[in-house]
Amino acid sequence: MSDKVVTRFAPSPTGYLHIGGARTALFNWLYAKHTGGTMLLRIEDTDRERSTEAATAAILDGLTWLGLSWDGEAVSQFERAPRHREVAEELVRLGKAYYSYETPAELEAMREAARAKGLPPRYNGQWRDRDPSEAPPGLKGAIRIKAPTEGETVVHDRVQGEVRFPNKDLDDFIILRSDGNPTYMHAVVVDDHDMGVTHIIRGDDHLTNAARQTVIYNAMGWDVPSMSHIPLIHGADGAKLSKRHGALGVEAYRSMGYLPEALLNYLARLGWSHGDDEIMSIKDMIGWFDIGDVNKGAARFDFAKLEALNGVHMRKMDDHALFDIFVATLPYLEGGSALAARLDDQKKAQLLAALPGLKERAKTLVELVDGAGFLFAERPLPVDEKAAALLSGEARAVLRGAHATLTAVSGDWTAATAEAAIRDFAQAGGHKLGAVAQPLRAALTGRSTSPGVFDVLAVLGREESLARIADQID
Ligand code: GLU
What we know:
Layout: E1 6-9, H1 19-35, E2 38-43, H2 53-66, E3 75-76, H3 81-93, E4 97-100, H4 104-116, E5 142-145, E6 152-157, E7 161-166, E8 174-176, H5 184-194, E9 199-203, H6 207-220, E10 226-230, E11 233-234, H7 250-255, H8 260-269, H9 282-288, E12 299-300, H10 303-316, H11 319-329, H12 336-341, H13 345-359, H14 365-371, H15 373-376, H16 385-389, H17 393-407, H18 415-429, H19 433-445, H20 453-460, H21 462-473
Parallel strand pairs: 1-2, 2-3, 9-10, 11-12
Antiparallel strand pairs: 4-5, 5-8, 6-7
Helix pairs in contact: 1-9, 3-5, 5-6, 8-10, 13-20, 17-18, 17-19, 17-21, 18-19, 18-20, 19-21, 20-21
The structure holds glutamic acid.
């Protein structure tokens, strides 16, 4: 066997790509990338009632948006049921598992009897050592693993440390149901083994499963993969992350205007750190990540921190790259579709030119939509309340002069030529620069905040700028 690391992400397709699932995928991906290994994707669709095609599509879409690529085709767990059956039957042949024949009512009575004696409600192993010839005729029976009854099962976990489970607490659990379908516990082991998974990285809600799964590995004589159970994400109040804390599905974070790289940076830092580094590129994360450095304690999701981090990533990003992501994300953003519909070549060029100024004032792509609104506004511009307050009678008189000055600008129309003209005008008239710039901004954008007013003049162009100013002085 080679030493190549093989990780996997194994979501159950019952809804969307959960934000916690995205972090699990990220840790698997980072570890694979860091070690030059591969990450596989397995869709755990064995539960036919809860699994949907739409949920699978949402998971693939979420991973793709985040850039968490998997190697090879996604594996369907359901389609591997014949193989799960084969291994369960082999375990029976090996004497490591056996058929049992209780009805649900009998099992309930068994649990009840145990409870009455103050014992944990476990299977009593009554078919464990019986001869198969005693099986009730015509019944198929469920296959149960012969779990060890003494000693302990130890999970060597790279995050949780050595976790010991007394074997007296593990009963002979079912690996194949009487209808021939594998249990989840069994399917996971067979799949991880067959897929050559060397490292299992998943939520710590699966830690007790790890003990039961170890029993199956041992029964088959298979190597137990390296295990890492990472703490779940909690809300700001310390309770397990739920809807009332905020969005759970990754697609909602796309709609809120977060950059994939920023979200990954934020998720990576939930429970993992590299010195004091807060801002990390994907390359940094790949270079620095090690599963052994993940904390044991639960991490708390802080929306304000995510937003601030997103703003930093937006400002750091190359303008063309940010432009491309912005345009690709527009259909998902609030107010974005209307803008996308009007994004012709001229508007694209204006947007790109305005981006350096716009991104200084935006923490999310949704705020960028808002900030870019002036580019797409139709004359006469709607003027918001704060902007209207900047357009008093006196201010309009100043605007009139500014309009005449700008009309007289000859040659190139750039931020520099516009600025020179306005500065001269302000000085000659004894106005403070702000007393000219503020009404100009209000007239040009309908807002009291915008990128630098000279950049706005340049981006809008001579004709549109003069027309917008004229709209406010007539
Ligand atoms: N399908 C399980 C889940 O979505 C993960 C199982 C595993 O990683 O072993 O929670």
